User: Which sequence fits this backbone?
């Protein structure tokens, strides 16, 4: 969606998050949201930021997610700053829901904070969004290749994106983020929304494989605590919108 969000607001958020990241020096998280590898950073709940919160609850963004998803009421679930250094490695093929401890569909907003040329935007295996999760489960490159050949065509990349543009993708579509072949850092926000009424679930049906197990556990414990399994996604950081 072109120019859905205010560029100045995004620029201010970018500056603030980058300052916080370097101040906190938490290091790389190798299983940060959705496989961002070399330099991905996962922003923990303790570093939740008011400006980011304003962005996640921004009516343009929320309305867009509702339009795409057809849902009446949604809640922000989590967000990450997705960082790729110049020449940084790609994010491998994945389904977002393998990484999320929830029992129903998610919708991720991918929000570039820097210009992203078309060879670096996300790439989707479109047909896979409609597959039942058990049928689109694939472990290892061969299984994935077969799946993509059988069901996933066409494979399509997003066009060039600028700050203000937003991509919204459903949680079971297979996709990847290409390597950063530019000379510039690439920052993006990944924000996952869920339907109001979603429950926390460490082993979601059809998405309970090993790929995202560590991330599911970490997210559940960090954002919701030890006793959260089975509870509704709720609380001040996950308002009903
Ligand atoms: O930022 C990237 O390159 C990958 C992000 C991604 O795959 C996602 O937001 O689901």
Assistant:
């Amino acid at each position: 969606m072109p120019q859905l969000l205010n560029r100045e607001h995004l620029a201010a958020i970018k500056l603030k998050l980058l300052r916080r990241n370097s101040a906190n020096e938490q290091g790389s998280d190798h299983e940060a949201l959705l496989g961002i590898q070399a330099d991905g950073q996962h922003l923990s709940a303790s570093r939740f930021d008011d400006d980011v919160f304003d962005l996640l609850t921004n009516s343009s963004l929320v309305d867009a997610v509702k339009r795409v998803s057809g849902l009446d009421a949604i809640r922000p679930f989590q967000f990450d700053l997705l960082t790729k250094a110049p020449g940084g490695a790609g994010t491998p093929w994945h389904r977002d829901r393998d990484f999320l401890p929830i029992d129903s569909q998610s919708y991720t907003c991918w929000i570039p904070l820097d210009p992203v040329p078309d060879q670096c935007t996300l790439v989707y295996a479109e047909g896979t969004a409609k597959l039942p999760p058990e049928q689109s489960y694939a472990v290892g490159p061969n299984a994935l290749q077969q799946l993509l050949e059988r069901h996933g065509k066409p494979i399509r990349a997003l066009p060039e994106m600028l700050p203000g543009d937003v991509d919204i993708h459903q949680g079971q579509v297979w996709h990847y983020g290409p390597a950063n072949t530019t000379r510039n850092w690439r920052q993006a926000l990944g924000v996952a929304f869920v339907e109001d009424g979603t429950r926390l679930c460490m082993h979601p049906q059809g998405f309970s494989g090993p790929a995202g197990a560590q991330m599911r556990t970490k997210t559940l414990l960090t954002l919701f605590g030890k006793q959260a399994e089975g509870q509704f996604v709720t609380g001040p950081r996950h308002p009903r919108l």
About this structure: The domain at 7-224 is CATH 2.60.120.620 (Jelly Rolls). The longest helix spans residues 7-24. Residues 61 and 137 are 30 Å apart (CA to CA).
